[in-house]
Amino acid sequence: MANFTLSELAEIVGGQVSGDADLTIDGVATLSTAGRSHIGFLSNPAYRKQLASTRAGAVIVEPREREHCPTNALLVSEPYNAYARIAALFQEKPAGERGIHPAAWVSGDAWIHESAWIGPNCSVEAGVRIEAGCHLGPGCFVGSGSLLGEGTRLVGNVSICHGVRIGSRCLIHPGAVVGSDGFGFAKEQEGWLKVPQMGGVVIGDDVEIGANTTIDRGALEDTVIGNGVKLDNQIQIAHNVQIGEHTVIAGCAGISGSTRIGKRCAIAGGVGIAGHLEIADDVTITAMSLVTRSIARSGVYSSGIPAQENGIWNRQVARLRRLERLAQRVGKPESNHRQKE
Amino acid sequence: MANFTLSELAEIVGGQVSGDADLTIDGVATLSTAGRSHIGFLSNPAYRKQLASTRAGAVIVEPREREHCPTNALLVSEPYNAYARIAALFQEKPAGERGIHPAAWVSGDAWIHESAWIGPNCSVEAGVRIEAGCHLGPGCFVGSGSLLGEGTRLVGNVSICHGVRIGSRCLIHPGAVVGSDGFGFAKEQEGWLKVPQMGGVVIGDDVEIGANTTIDRGALEDTVIGNGVKLDNQIQIAHNVQIGEHTVIAGCAGISGSTRIGKRCAIAGGVGIAGHLEIADDVTITAMSLVTRSIARSGVYSSGIPAQENGIWNRQVARLRRLERLAQRVGKPESNHRQKE
Amino acid sequence: MANFTLSELAEIVGGQVSGDADLTIDGVATLSTAGRSHIGFLSNPAYRKQLASTRAGAVIVEPREREHCPTNALLVSEPYNAYARIAALFQEKPAGERGIHPAAWVSGDAWIHESAWIGPNCSVEAGVRIEAGCHLGPGCFVGSGSLLGEGTRLVGNVSICHGVRIGSRCLIHPGAVVGSDGFGFAKEQEGWLKVPQMGGVVIGDDVEIGANTTIDRGALEDTVIGNGVKLDNQIQIAHNVQIGEHTVIAGCAGISGSTRIGKRCAIAGGVGIAGHLEIADDVTITAMSLVTRSIARSGVYSSGIPAQENGIWNRQVARLRRLERLAQRVGKPESNHRQKE
């Protein structure tokens, strides 16, 4: 188990110790569950009550919270970021295997760096290139001609189709699919004619892709996910979508074909964005909103309606349906009686 | 093929035969497709018309429906429950294999009960414990240190990440992922810093998890799914969520991080629940509602709007957008002409 | 690389060349990226600007667009369909393997046509029948007794459970699950009793199933997907659903149990349809709508609300909540002052 003194931790995150600098810390924990050898953190003042009663050996806090901290403190300007760095020190590292598991199948025409790991029941097709430090957990497949940059990790049962380029230090969770065909069909007399999906997918560096998220390949050009993009679970990214750097998208959102999303956007859970739109940089879209037009300016956009008690809600929906009649009774401004009075 | 007389079935489910107690039944079927050797059921009076014309050898009905039943009847107070028990008698049982398939890979440091089955192309990592009667269909992986309780079944291509504890008699469908990283990042100057996800997932007994449902591991503590919870397909459960016993959640719902859901709740399809909320016991949430606040009392809650003909709907949305102006024309209660009259 | 003269392409799609019929074409491209040996297309007049500046060797256009085309033209009445056919000529064909990969496992009781391909890490159970020209990419499993018709392709990591019948020329993308249990439980004193899901799934010919889409097996009868149906990614189809021929469903939609959808319907992304409904033929449902009643007539139906700037939206929601009071102030038609005046 890893061990650090409080002063070592302070040095690592660039903070100040207030209290016993020699205290040994062997793990992170929440304020309410921490013991004497743990360090906790306070980043949200709402948890100040838990701070008062914590049994943690030390707590990461902003300097202004020092007075509320009943134990040793590690003072930093951004406690949550410092916590993230410290937690990483205590996190169990994957075993660091290298080589090809005997129960994996790798094409003779694939190139695998000697420091990479190909786990059991993986399949790696011809023309694939897997760089140094990559880790493929059990049951992944990588289709022909695809590339994985240095240190990229597929947790397990990940599907990378053919012709996909993935950058360095990406983390892709189980069940994610990258490079499935876009949804493109031409209307025929009877039924639909498939439009070949011949583009690829290009994924930048430091991208995280959640469990069971799907990213389709482009029709002719590539679907592009920028550096530092973070995608939660169960997200659908359609063909030819482009997502700018450092944008984050929460679970169950869906982005339709050819839409371009700017940099540093924050798209909440369950949002749907129609196709062929342009979303500016620094746009926030709140949960379960439906975006049907391009958004040219940074800001917060919404159309989700908070749930209410069912009887009240049903009356509101009924009222909404009769709004036309209500408006007619009130009349147009010009003929409005209040203006006549 | 299994065979039971009607009186044997009555004994099994605690019901009464009205008619030929010696009739042999060899299967279950719907009222409209059943033949002489089948038993059907009526649990919804809306199907009474089909009862009248059924060719079933027998029908499971409430006593008060006896008069409408044109054939032998098995009288019980809860026909759907009795049907479920009887159907299970006729269901083909999985082959009951035991052992480790030669095309599976199992770590030498995993413990597998001799009555468990590890199917082809499965991967079982070090420190895993798999109890009696477990069944892993093809292509599953179980990450290091995870536990599967007695009689738990993974249908195939299921991903169980490291450090996950699953109870007894659970059923997990293909593509489900348990233990993927929660979606946690701290904002940096540029981009996002990953917050290590160091908690686990604890799943109770008798839990069913649908196809392609995802359950993230906790950040520091565990994500917890209570006994008897039933999750449909394509559900997203974020980190640190807690779900109380016997709650059911329908397809495509999403529960955001750290939300706690009570016991015996019923959450319909496509519902989204924001993070850090508390939902009481016995709460029902109707389809495609968005829950943004905690719910303290049992009851039914909604915000889904039923679809209408598109032209009508567009006018309603336009009216909603002009509601501010309409309200201004009507004026505030104090200045309202009706009160002045 | 494939090569065709412009006149050969015209013959294949039944069009007319305007310009150099002997020009050699070796690929398709967008108007903005095409070079001299590429053919592009214009199907949407919005892209006429790109047509004006294209460097493509030839462009597929309607005859009436000939005058705007600065290069050789292939004149057809339906440019997008002609493009789809021509693109298919240039698409890289999968390698055309046949046989069983040494790293696959196939039951001795399965029947595999000699021209089919079973890829690495696939599992094929007893009683399975796989017809001529089928292609199973890496990591697929096919459960006992299931059938795959001629030329059907599972891209990789696809899960086909037991007792599923799939037609000819289907294409199923990674992570898709066909034949998982429907979500059926009977309420008990405490908790839920599983209702055995004993039906199957029947999928017609020329069906496409997107990545991570799930299709549950029927409870007693079959879930049925008609010929030519196209399903995008992350769609949930519940037990006993029937979908008519040539219907298309976009990503993240969910169809609840026992609902029957007609032929040639178009269901947009994120739509939810309640259970036990009947949707007529030729119905269009727009994005993120919630359908709670049967739809008897062809037409377009909606309940999705387009997002707006958050402050404006919040005021509209607040107004909606006070609509009851507003309506009371305006009064009922009979007592309305405007009628009295």
List the helices and strands and how they pair.
The structure is a homotrimer of 341-residue chains.
Chain A: E1 4-5, H1 6-13, E2 16-18, E3 24-25, E4 27-28, E5 38-41, H2 48-52, E6 58-61, E7 72-75, H3 79-90, E8 99-100, E9 105-106, E10 111-112, E11 117-118, E12 123-124, E13 129-130, E14 135-136, E15 141-142, E16 147-148, E17 153-154, E18 159-160, E19 164-166, E20 171-172, E21 177-180, E22 185-187, E23 192-194, E24 201-203, E25 208-209, E26 214-216, E27 223-225, E28 230-231, E29 236-237, E30 242-243, E31 248-249, E32 254-255, E33 260-261, E34 266-267, E35 272-273, E36 278-279, E37 283-285, E38 290-291, E39 299-302, E40 308-309, H4 310-321, H5 323-330, H6 337-340
Parallel strand pairs in A: 4-5, 5-6, 6-7, 8-11, 9-12, 10-13, 11-14, 12-15, 13-16, 14-17, 15-18, 16-19, 17-20, 18-21, 19-24, 20-25, 21-26, 24-27, 25-28, 26-29, 27-30, 28-31, 29-32, 30-33, 31-34, 32-35, 33-36, 34-37, 35-38, 37-39
Antiparallel strand pairs in A: 1-3, 2-7, 22-23
Count of individual domains of chain A: 3
Main pleated-sheet profile of chain A: 11 strands, parallel
User: In angstroms, what is the radius of gyration of chain A?
Assistant: 26 Å
Percentage of residues in DSSP E strands of chain A: 25-35%
Helix and strand composition category of chain A: alpha/beta
In CATH, the architecture of the largest domain in chain A is 3 Solenoid
Measured as a percent range, the helix fraction of chain A is 10-25%
CATH class of the largest domain in chain A: Mainly Beta
Give the integer mean of the pLDDT values of chain A: 94
